[in-house]
Amino acid sequence: MTYELLVPIFIVSTALISIGLYGVMSKKNILKIILSLDLMDTGVNILIVAMGYLPGGTAPIENGNYKVYVDPVPQALVLTAIVIGVSVTALALAIAINYYRKTGTIELEKEGVMKW
Amino acid sequence: MVMFDVPPVLLIAFPLFFAFLAPLIYYLSKKSIKFYTLGVLILNAILSYFLFFRVMDEGVVYEQLSGFYPPVGILLAVGYLGSILAMLINTLATINYVSFFDEKSHSLRFSMLYMLVTASSTGIVVTGDLFNMFVFFEITAVGSYGLLASKGTKRSYEGAIKYIVLGSIGSSFILLGIATIYGYLKTLNFYDIAARISTMPIEAKLMAFTFLVIGIGVEAEIFPLNGWVPDAYQGASSRVASFMVLGPSKAGIYAIARLIFTLIPFSDGYELALILGALTLLIGELAALNQKDVKRMLAYSSIGQMGLILIALSLHSQIALIAAVFLIVNHALAKSLLFLGSRNYASGILKNPVIGASIFIGALSIIGMPPFPGFWGKWYLIVDMAHNGLWFMISVILFAAIVEAVYYARFLFRGTGNEKVTLLPGEKIAIISLAVLLVIIALFPFLLYNPASNAATSFLGGGP
């Protein structure tokens, strides 16, 4: 199949997910943590879109000119995932603002989020 | 019994619809919003009873949505365990909502989030589609973030942020798992995946399994992923913590059960679940022993109970699964009772006999004292382990039970909480109703045993 074509995409998405995970675990600044979460989301979404990719494929709308169609399901999944990601980011930012108003700082306490 | 065939989708659609209608009601009359919400929750609870009896009559109930036939369209599949949990979640959410009744500032947002989380927790236990489950997970999580932050103190925001971070990582991992499965099998339907999972290479199977366990484990409070639990529960108001225990975490453990039994069943998965469960149990109980704050103690104890449930699931035998159902029901009832009571349990039974006795019943049931459902759960579990010769695991469970007994005894006899705070009438009603439910199951365990036995048979046969 076309898995050789997808190798760069796998590398990019793995890199994004790793950077995001590293950022979440090492940073204490809430904004940086939220940005890292967004990076992770993007990495996963790229991976899912790549799942349905076919070389030369087009959107699955029948008009006689094209014979190869990409798989529409991953695109639908990613659309949903993007919407969810945006709303979670918005909510996280809102809570971060409230946290700032209460405490006067945007940093979490010294252990960060990974304190057990 | 007179009944009509409830389509499972109503259980999700009703509260979603009414939740988004709530602003209009609020606009018309600010005072009526709490009666409106209570009415919606009661309606949903009644629907869940009808669904439960329908499932007991007919077996697994299927419903296809949006006119596409499976495996393309979304399929709802309600099995025995799903219907038990749907009934449990909706009933307890209704009872728990009563405890909010006397709040002066009864906000619209809170009621909407409450209905949304109830709807989506129910959605997780009735769905038959992997991506649909993911979406319900996200709705549950987003609603829970809002509810946990709703107290508006520094601690509650901190807890909510922790949950958002871990929840988002979890959802990314669920998506990765879905992508792995979809990449190989080109399907999202549970039955289709279960039928063809053996055609996947073993590495891909392991990868998908790990990703999904990590993702769902955040919600189900499994060991390395439950760092949010103590902070979030301690920061939130006791009633919200009680709601989190009875709704989202139960849906999460159902998803884990679905994953290890029907979706990707293989023997190493059971062993992994056993090890994770034992670690969760021991770490949760030992951490609970050291806590001064009662809500934090209950949160760690809740982690320990989830570990116990995971151990019961991982044994994959008839009796162990019945034990798991008993433990799930016991944890939902007793722990939400204790959370509700944690605000003021000053000095034992004598001061306020009815509430004191109710809290006493809850603690006894969690520890696993004889007539209560917690005892039946642990008893069946130990019987099954003795049958299989797992003596080491029996000693782990008994050790955890002793630790549990120690800190609950401290909780009961020394009393906790702030003496100046008095429980609101709504909270008292909720506490007493939960205690009455515990006593009913203690007196008539077969009420739960028969459905649980059906659920176990169905799960072992690869059903939902």
Account of the protein in words:
The complex is a heterodimer of chains A (116) and B (464). With 116 residues, chain A is mostly helical. Chain A has a single domain, classed as Helix Hairpins (Orthogonal Bundle), CATH 1.10.287.3510. Chain A is built from three helices and no strands. Chain B has one domain. Chain B is built from 19 helices and four strands. Chains A and B meet through helix 1, helix 2 and helix 3 of A and helix 5 and helix 6 of B.
Strand runs of chain A, count: 0
Name of the CATH first level of chain A: Mainly Alpha
Strand order across the largest sheet of chain B: 1-2
Average pLDDT of chain B works out at: 86
Largest interface summary: A-B, 39 and 34 residues
Beta-strand percent range of chain A: under 5%
Helix/sheet category of chain A: mainly alpha
β-strand number of chain B: 4
Number of helices of chain A: 3
CATH fold-level assignment of chain A: Helix Hairpins
Largest sheet of chain B: 2 strands, antiparallel
Net shape of chain A: elongated
End-to-end separation of chain B: 25 Å
* SSE topology string of chain B: HHEEHHHHHHHHHHHHEHHHEHH
Rg of chain A, please? Answer: 19 Å
- Look at the structure and give the mean pLDDT of chain A: 83
